[in-house]
Amino acid sequence: DGEVHINELKNGSTEMFWNPTSEVRRQRLKRHIVLFEEQTDFESERLWQHVTSAINKGDQHKATQEKFVLEEEQRNAARERRESGTEWKPLLFRHDAGTDEWRYKYEDLRPWDPLNDIAQFEKDGILQTMERHLSTRMSNHKATCINNQITRHKRSAKDCRRRKTSDQPSNHSQNTESSCSTPESVQELSDDDGKYLGFESLCAQCGKEMNHLKEIHSAVLSLQKAQQDIHR
């Protein structure tokens, strides 16, 4: 987030290549790191602290010395493990024998879901995804609404049969039950998204969240199209 210049060696001229504004600096990505005192001995910031300090002071000779000391210690530790037959067990990586590569143990290769995934974060060396779980919450809510409507439907049909049976002669009871099996309050929806077992539309909260998800989905599709156009 600082100025970057291009120096032309042939004629000694200098050209401004990058000069971030205060607005650009405010929009920079936040750096999330583990506190230094909470890091283990082999985490990069702690492991390379003396090399980093020398670089920041502009002492290249000191930085080279510290780097040599650090790498020599690692070579000696590896030699001692090899001589004693001690197996090195990585904490966060595993060896893939098929590709002869080291892979992160907790890698998540599923596509990013913009409707459900909020952010990725690291905890105890493990990358995790924070999710909304909207689909699960809405599914449970819809199921509750449907069950409530089924209960009301059965109760209304039962009351209707009881009322008609008491009012009409016995030879009309069958036709009466058939004509009264569907209460007027229960209607089928014309919108396919709102059809659940042929019952009436779900509660206002469900409808509101459904519309909200549709708006988000439409916005995401628009962004994806724009990204594809930019890529082309």
UniProtKB/TrEMBL annotation:
It comes from the Eukaryota. Residues 144-191 are annotated as: Disordered. Residues 151-164 have a biased composition (Basic residues). One of its GO terms (molecular function) is lipid binding. Residues 167-188 have a biased composition (Polar residues). This is OSBL5 protein. It comes from Rhodinocichla rosea. The lineage of its organism: Eukaryota, Metazoa, Chordata, Craniata, Vertebrata. The gene is Osbpl5.
